[in-house]
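Q: What would this chain look like folded?
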Amino acid sequence: MGIGADAVARCDLWARSPFSEEPRALTRRYLTDAHRAAIRRLSIWMVAAGMNVRLDPAGTLIGRYEGAPGGTGKTLLIGSHIDSVCDAGSYDGALGVMLGLGCIAHLAQAGRRLPFAIELLAFGDEEGSRFPASMVGSRALAGILHEDVTRYRDANGVELGQAMRDFGLDPTLLPEAAHDPSEVLLYFEAHIEQGPVLEAENLPVGVVTGIAAQTRLMVRLEGIACHAGTTPMHLRRDALAAAAEAILALERIAAAAADGLVATAGTIAAFPGLNNVVPGKVNFSVDLRAPQSVRRDALELEFRTELAEICTRRGIGCDVEVVQRLAPCFCDQAAQRTLAEAVAEQGITPRYLASGAGHDAMNVVALAPVAMLFIRCKEGISHNPAEHVTVEDAEMAAQIMLGFIEKMAAAG
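A: My prediction, written as C-alpha cells:
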C-alpha cells in the first residue's frame, strides 16, 4: 500500500476498541485508557519507521528522526492531534499524524537523511472534549501554557492534574515540555478541511493561510430554585429561562455581525435538574471565533453587555469565566509559497483558504513559523461518524508533504 492507504487504514483501525472509549462509536479523550492505547500503538509504528520515541510532560508523543551528520541542527516539526470529540469521525487530527508517520517511514526506507531532524508530534488534547481547556499539549510545547490548567475538572469531578498523575505524568514538569525556538525550523500540519470548499471546487487539497481567533467562556447563572407548581410566573428567578434568552441573543448577535464571526453555546447544565423545580443554577459554554482578535473581542463585549441586561431584568446572578483565549494564527508566507509549489507539481492549482476551526498550529506559531495543508473531506462533514476522506486524496497529500519536505531540504 502507499502512504495514503496506510494512513487511512490506521485511522480506521483507531476507530474501535481499545482505541475508543465506546464499543460502537469513536470517543478518544485526553488521558483515558483509549488515549493510552493509541500512544502505545503509535509508539510501535514510530520505532518501526526509524524514530526514537518519548512522551513529554503534557502527554504529547514525540517521535524523532535524526538528520544527517553535519546538518543545520534544526528540527522540522510535523504533527496534529490524536484525541477526538465524543462520537467522532476517524480522520480529524489522526490523519495528519499518520501521513507524517508515512512520510518519515518513506525517508527511512530510502536511507534518506535530511539537513535537519524531523519530530512527529501526536498531541493528546486539541479538542478539549474531557476538560474545559483545550490544546494543553501544543501550548505546553510552545511555552505559552501560562495558566494553571491542572485545576480544571472533567464531568466526573476528576482534576486534570490528578488525571495526569494517573497517566504516569508529573504536572509539575509541564514547563519542561517547551521546545527551544532557536532549534525549530518550522511546524507543518496536515488536516482534513472540516468544511465544504475543497469538495465544491473539486480539489483534493488546499493551502491554509491562517486560523481564526477563538475565545471559550463558561457562563454561570444563579437564580432561585423553587416549586414549579406554586411559584407564579412573575415571581420566578428562573436561571434556565435566562440562559435560553442569553443563548438566543448570542445567536442573533453573531448572525447580524456576519464577516466570518461565529458563536456557539455547546454545553448546558441546569440544577437541580428536576421536572418539578424551577432551575436555580445553570452553566453553559460559549465558543466565539473570528478572523481577527478585534472582531472576536467586539462580539464578546456585545454578548456580555446583553447578558448583563438580561440577568439584571430577571434578577439573576451572573459570572463569566474566560476558559481560553487564542489569538489568530497566520501561516508563514514563504512556507505557503513552498507548499503551493509542491501542490502545483502534482498538477493541482493551489487553492488558498483560511480555517475557521482551531488547530494546534495556532499555538505552535508562538514557537516557530507554521504551514498547513487541508485535505478534502466528503461534504465537509467533521466531528461526526460520517467524516470521510478517500485514499486517493490522502495519497496526494502524502506526495505533497514529501515534496514540501524535500524543497525545505534543498533550501538548506
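Residues 3-212+328-410 form a domain with the Aminopeptidase fold (CATH 3.40.630.10).
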